[in-house]
Amino acid sequence: MSKEFNRVQIGSDATTRLRMLKGDTQITPNFLCRIGLCYSLNEPRPPNPAQYDSDGQTFNRYTLLGEHDALYMAMLKERLLQEGLDPEEDLEDQFVAHLNRGVIRVFGNIDNLDDFYNLIPNGLKETSVDAAGDAE
Amino acid sequence: MKLNKLVITDFGPYRGRNEFDLKTTPESPVILFGGRNGAGKTTLFQGIQICLHGRSALGRRTSEGEYKDLVRSKLHDYPDESATEASIRLEFEYAHMGEVDHYTVTRSWRDRGKSIVENLDVRRNGNLPSDLDKEQWEDFLKELIPPGVSQLFFFDGEKIQELATAIEDDDSFEDSLLSLLGLELVDRLDADLSIYVSQKIDESGVEGINEELNELRETEEEFKQEMADLQDARTTREEELAEVEEKIDSKEAQIAKEGGAYADKREELKDRRVELDTKIDRRKDDIRSIVTGAYPFALAPDLCQSVVDRLQTESEQQEQAAARERLSEELDTLLAQDNLLTETDIPDDASEQITTRIRTAMEDRLVEGSTESKLLHQFSATQRQEMYSLVDQALNDVPAELGEATTEMESMVRERQQIEEKLGRAPDKEVLSPLVDELNDLTERRGALKSELEDLEEEIGKMETKLSRLENQIENKRKEKSEVEGVSERANLANRVQAVLKEYREEIAEEKLRQLESVLSERYLALSNKSEFYDKVVVEEGQLNIFVETIHGNRKPQSDLSAGERQIFATSLLWALAEISGRPLPFIVDTPLGRLDQPHRENLVQNFFPEASHQVLVFSTDTEIDNQHYDDLSESVAQAYHLDYNEMDGCTDVSTGYFWSGNPDSEKASIEGVTQ
Questions:
Q1: Contacts of B301 in chain A (CB under 8 A)
Q2: How far apart are CA B310 and CA B370, in angstroms?
Q3: pLDDT digit string (tens) for B146-175?
Q4: Where are the domains positioned within chain A?
Q5: In chain B, domain spans
Q6: Mean of pLDDT values over A79-87
Q7: A105 touches chain B (CB under 8 A)
Q8: Which residues of chain B have pLDDT under 50?
Q9: Gene3D superfamilies in the record, alphabetically (chain A) (predicted)?
Q10: In terms of C-beta distances under 8 Å and separation of at least 24 residues, what long-range contacts does B500-507 make, across chains too?
């Protein structure tokens, strides 16, 4: 199995943004983190773990990722494999880095609940909007 | 304590094994050793002390080297060479808590050329004392018979001489006195407490902690003040908000009354607004539930797809590998059956070719791929199925559902905005226009107040976090402080104990001195030949000045007594001290009569030896306890030994009886001594 870790500590920057995002959307930090993680995973450039401090909020990994833990981890490992990183050794650092970057980016793009839809990549939206349009 | 037997082997002038029976009875408490100078009286006297206390018997200033040198010099000289081993064994009984234990203490030495090796052996009632380690024996003996106290019971003429000339400033006398008074222990406790106190005070750092604590408390005060300010601000805003809302209600009512059709329209719009608010809220909930579900995965569709692809590829490869293996096995089994082809018409050489072809064809159909599994092995089949359906949901359902919900909400929000605008628009009628303007102002004010309140709530929330963190810090500091104070509390306690000890020491010293005074008076008068003239002995506190008071009330310093008188005085002092020590130990007296005149000797022989203790060992020359005295004493003598130095052989012969006592019991006693 992978190198297990339970405790996840994000940076102070991300922590502040999570609090403000929660104010804007009434969505709790755990969910916002999942959104941030995936958002960051979709970015082409890898994050830089050294860029973030670890003075922020602490999460329990399993409350953070919830029932879909497996898929989140699978995606992260897939990405690490694609980047030629070690999916065990680099897992924790990369996970935290993605979390930090993702949360900060998401914060820049979300003012209220309407904006979540805009985060979905366009390719996916067009086909589904078409499909939705067809269905109507 | 009562001595029963002394065995001395190759020590001093004693050649081989020499046994002395020391048993006495209450009627006959005296054991008499007679010997001329150099016969070995002092060796015997010292031997008993050395046996019990080893090096400490020689006084605390004796070094280990000096002690070993002394022991070496005491190894008995045989005509050709010195003995290489020597030992002293003492058997005694000791009453403790009403029970009498029999002890045997053996101290033996071996000459190892450069060094002397000492060995101590202690038996209680014939057994090794189970409650003591070998290392503790020495200390145990010191507890049993404290060296300080034993000085009072072991004394020789020389010591009495010393004591007689310088009671005031004699160290050993003072030591003995202190230990007698039970003050040695008190002094040691006092010293230990001092060390304890100074250590404890070093450990604590109460002042530093107090400073830190004060700083923390100041910060806490500031925070609390800020918090109070914030809460005040909130209350003000809340009151104003309530006021504004009340005004809005009354304005609305006024407009409704005055406005007619315009008012009806307003009501309609307001109803629609409420309806929209509900719907918007519902849509918001929808969006939230999507966003907190599979939504995140929709943000990284390519990666999701890669995961699915990889898992599927790996899983197919695994299946293929399994199938290949299984087929190959089946084929092996099948072809191993001889009759499969032999029963046909195919010739033997062809059949082998056929089987090879079948195998190759089969294996070609199932191409072996890479069996390296990177992700698959980490997830169970169920987990994989869940992932597939999750990805499917995220990539297909989520965008559509979220898109729909968002679009609907946006259009509703837009409609709501239009309604707000319409509601804010002033009517045509002049009466209403100012009312509506006022209403709009009030509504604006309400909005501002609400957002201010939200900001305040957030500030208050933050302040609460800061305060609770600070309270934790303060709590921790306080714990630290109370621990430190606990330390200084104990230090205080130790200080108080020291104060009490000081008082105790003074009181007990006073009490013991009064006791000494009275016992000493009695003993001195019993031995002195001026008992008619002297009334009592006075001991002054502090400097321990000792006076003899005459019947006329005149005081005479002890140092003004004549040499002989002082010797008698010293003897009675030792006797008195021994008595008030409360320790029933045997008296062992070496050459006690040296300087005394005849009357004093008589006093000593008649009053002191038989009375001094339950057991008295006297080492004497023939001129001290002479024929006359021996007769006086003989009733009290349980056993007498004659120590005679044999110059021819260079050793001391021991026989029972005194110098000239042609004691007919001599032979018999000797045999008894040995058999016992």
A1: 42, 121, 123-124
A2: 12
A3: 776 777 777 776 666 666 665 545 555 566
A4: 7-121
A5: 211-368+377-487
A6: 88
A7: no
A8: 168, 664-676
A9: DNA sulphur modification protein DndE (1.10.1220.160)
A10: B501/B186, B501/B189, B501/B190, B501/B193, B502/B190, B504/B186, B505/B183, B505/B186, B505/B187, B505/B190
Choose from A25, A124, A126 for mutation: most chain B CBs within 10 A: A124
Distance from CA of A53 to the nearest CA of B (A): 21
Q: What's B662's DSSP letter?
A: -
CB contact under 8 A, A131 and B379: no
A with B: how many residue pairs have Cβ under 8 Å apart? 122
Q: What tokens does A11 get?
A: 């940076």
d(CA A20, nearest CA chain B) in Å: 10
Residues from chain A that touch B406, judged by Cβ atoms under 8 A, are: 113-114, 116-117
Location of structure tokens 């001395």: B8
A29 touches B: beta carbon within 8 Å: no
B608 neighbors B527 (Cβ within 8 angstroms): yes
Contacts of B413 in chain A (CB under 8 A): 114
Tracing tokens 């320790």 back to the chain, one arrives at B583
CATH code linked to domain A7-121: 1.10.1220.160
B399, A71: Cβ pair inside 8 Å?
A: no
Task: Inspect the interface and report whether the beta carbons of B300 and A34 lie closer than 8 Å.
Answer: no
How far is the C-alpha of B552 from the C-alpha of B554, rounded, in Å?
A: 6
> How far is CA B134 from its chain centroid?
25
State the pTM of this model: 0.45
In angstroms, the CA B516 to CA B153 distance is 16
Both structure tokens of A53: 């401090």
Residues from chain A that touch B294, judged by Cβ atoms under 8 A, are 68
Q: Do the Cβ atoms of A86 and A132 come closer than 8 Å? A: no
φ, ψ at B108 (rounded to 5°): -130, 155
> B99-112 and B85-96: which strand pairing?
antiparallel
Phi, psi (5° rounding) for residue B364?
A: -65, -30
pLDDT of residue B352: 74
pLDDT digits (tens, 9 = 90+) for B563-595: 777 777 777 877 887 777 777 788 888 876 766
Considering only CB atoms, which chain A residues are within 8 Å of B378? Answer: 1-2, 73-74, 77
How many angstroms separate the CA atoms of B128 and B138, rounded? 14
ipTM: 0.90
